[in-house]
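Minutes, structural biology subgroup

Action item carried over from last meeting: produce the structure token record for Septum formation-related domain-containing protein (Virgisporangium ochraceum). EB confirmed the sequence was re-checked against the source entry. Recorded below for completeness.
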Amino acid sequence: MNAVTRAIASTSLAVLVLFGGSACAGTPGDGNLSDDWATMADPRVRVPEVGRCYNGADVAQNSYPPNWYRPVPCEGTHTAETFHVDELPAEVSERPALGHRHYWAAFDTCETQSKAFLGGDWHAARLYLSVFVPTPPQWDVGARWFACQVVETKTVLPGLVVQRSGSLRNALTGPAAVAHRCTDVIGLTEDDWEDLTPVDCAQPHDVEFAGSFKVPGTTAPAADKREGTFDRCWDVVAGYLGGTVDGMRMGYIPWGLDPKDWSNGDRWVRCFAWSSEKKTRGSVKGLGDRTPPS
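Output recorded by EB:
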């Protein structure tokens, strides 16, 4: 069996505060100030709208909340799309922070909604999910919404964001150009790597996406348990190959368990089938225990 490189690449699903302004409006001047004060607008800032697109940060990990007052047409160039907006439960008395169960619940809702919006699992694609909650001032005046946003990234890791045109709705149906398939490993060392760049599976390549799994529980695996957690990729890769863990001729490269990701709510590990001895050509799906094609 091939040697296995276990490399951890980080991604940060940002929980970022929103900024905005509130406006107040009065009735036309009628000499009665009490009428004007009575018609002032609700002081809460605008609630984000589903189906709106925005221009934001160029790097996914450093993404910041869009200006909700300045959406751009999704048919035109943009970086981010809001696909779901919801309300936090009434019992939530404090603004959710990273790692808090109410924030995780919001993130889980976004993940569930993303499957219907995208037509598949976002972990299996060059996509990056962010959850936004009201700023402290917004929270203080009663804002209780949370917004789910998705961007497309240029490589497997959530680095540079794609300036794209068109909605990501159903992006994981049909040809699914953003889906993880075959990639080259950039900066591979004995126990680390820098990025995975998409490659046509017909060309020589290093790894192929095999699937992902969610780590159970709410406590992140300790340092001495991480390798054992990653080893669940053996079963994921074997299932993708249609082979056996003991007989297959490939190893794996995992991506996941970054501490910040865990705090954000992303408790998934992605698994990539990997041949340490040579580049492969063509997909290894259904390969079984045979030697990978080259």
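Discussion: Residues 15-19+48-165 form one domain.
Next step: EB to file the record with the rest of the batch.
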